[in-house]
Amino acid sequence: MGVSAGAHPGAGSESEVKMTVPGPRNDFPLLKTQVRTATDAAHGSADLSKRMETQQVNIYYGKRHAVQDVSIPFYENLITAIIGPSGCGKSTLLRAMNRMNDAIPGYRIEGQVLLDGQEIHTPGTDVITLRRRVGMVFQQPNPFPKSIYDNVAFGLRVNGLVKSRAELDGRVEKALRGAALWDEVKDRLNRNALQLSGGEQQRVCIARALAVQPEVLLMDEPASALDPVSTAKIEELMFELKKDYTIVIVTHNMQQAARVSDFTAFLLSGQLIEFNPTPQLFTRPADPRTEAYITGRFG
Amino acid sequence: MKSRFTDKIFVFLCLFAVLVVIAMLAAVLGNITYHGWDRLSWEFISASPTHGMTEGGIFPAIYGTVLLVLLMAIFVVPLGVCVAIYFSEYADRSSRLYRWTRAAVDNLAGVPSIVFGLFGLGFFVQFVGGGVDQVFFGGNLTFRQPAILWASLTMAVLTLPVVIISVEETLRAVPQSFRDASYALGATKSQTIFRVVLPNAMSGVLTGGILAVSRGAGEVAPILFVGAAYFLPHLPTKLNDQFMQLGYHVFVLSTQSPDVEATKPLLYSTVFVLLALTFLLNLVAVAIRARLRVTAGSGR
């Protein structure tokens, strides 16, 4: 477990990778190229800085121990994927990172969740500020039944972040550009967001999250309700977004984790089984359970 | 074979029951329309009663009814919405306060309307009105008397459960995902309620309001002691004026008239107007809901 330095040969040729990689790799023909880009990003720079981190986090719903002793670092400007079968606690863990679980009756969390080294569960933590810094995109596209403009402007308005209409216009445009949606919708900003396609709706939700300029973006299976073309667009967008944001994505789609992420955490029954650079986890998993999962033997 | 026979009998009985309901409604409406149609005219709707209510129209009663339910709506809708928000968004369902207020609302709906009338007389007219007179009018009799203000407040108490239940239902139907999205953007709970949840429950607020209005327009008992007048030579202009009301006017025409036979045609026409008004309000409620559903689905 942990980021093992030198676990990957780094700039090896494709054939080299092929030779050293056993069984599971063959199930992921796409991985060959992705291995390099992701690895270069992850290992190329020595100064990986942790933007967020969970330390020995335990989460309970009443008596149910949903997340057990999970410690994961989330590095700045990288994408960390959390994978695992349904009910493994991956969404629960993600939602703990901006305290979206707080209102659930019987919910209890132990251990530490750090944002820039600061514990987010202290009594003095302002949840409103936390959620502005740690944005979230949900599984089902959930735009408000308002205009595209009002959707994107929502966070700016409720937080009182803009002083003038002109400034608001600018921030909305910037957010929509950030979500690669501006050119598609700039002529119909006053249209109801529900009239858009599912993929466009999800990008409105991403733009809405970006508008308040968060530092971390939590994505809870953001493409699971979308068709393949829309999914590809969202993934493409994630590559762009990681230049400016730290991204955590929960997914049960292993190919997606392999394509987009730099690090992957594998959760099983609430426990962290393995955390490693994505190429390594998918090609030479350290734990036999990881191997069993990624080769499709369960889940 | 036998079970198939009883099955047929049962279907027949159900159909018969449905027919009875339809026939009764048709009989009521048909009878009233048949007898009331002749006297209906613009004059009937726009003029005051004359000649000991055997001639003239019912305009003061229509005016009083509309004024009454409008005032009532102004009181009952905000109050009902607040209670519904508390029930749906804030209350801990296992708390004692929630269970008690819940039981209070449910029981309020079951209180006979004449009791509301007595309550209005005792509480609003005597207690509140008396207090207002003491404090603001030096004890001069101003508000400690039956008035449209007290009648509309009494009616508001009566229709409160209607509004609460209608609004609460729609609030609960607002998807959790909207709330999640709002919280995730850093909105507070009250911002989430007023900017996301409540706007998505507007159809319930309007429906609740209109149901309350149509209920209020038809009730007579609660206003017997708190403001409805037998006959007034002028329209109410102040909050402490008495007023005429359609339902009460029907009662007056049918039992209190010096010449019951002479008022009969007027009576039918008055009932016709009352029914038409209530149906119209319900129609408006349905239309608004349908319209809101369309706008929610396709642009603002």
Structural overview:
Chain A is α/β, with parallel strands linked by helices and 299 residues long. Helices cover 37% and strands 22% of the residues of chain A. A six-stranded mixed beta sheet of chain A has the order 6-7-8-3-9-10, sandwiched between helices. Chain A has a four-stranded antiparallel beta sheet with strand order 2-1-4-5, with helices on one face. The longest helix of chain A has 14 residues, at 31-44. Chain A is globular. Mean pLDDT of chain A is 84; it is low at 1-45. Chain B folds into two domains: 1-37; 41-299, MetI-like fold. Chain B has helices at residues 2-36, 42-46, 59-90, 96-110, 113-136, 148-173, 176-184, 189-197, 202-218, 246-256, 260-297; strands at residues 49-50, 55-56. In chain B, helix 3 crosses helix 10 and helix 6 packs antiparallel against helix 9 (202-218). Chain B is globular. Chain B starts with a helix and ends with a helix. The interface between A and B is medium-sized, with 30 and 21 residues.
Task: Summarize this structure briefly.
The complex is a heterodimer of chains A (299) and B (300). By secondary structure, chain A is an alpha/beta fold. Chain A contains twelve helices and ten strands.
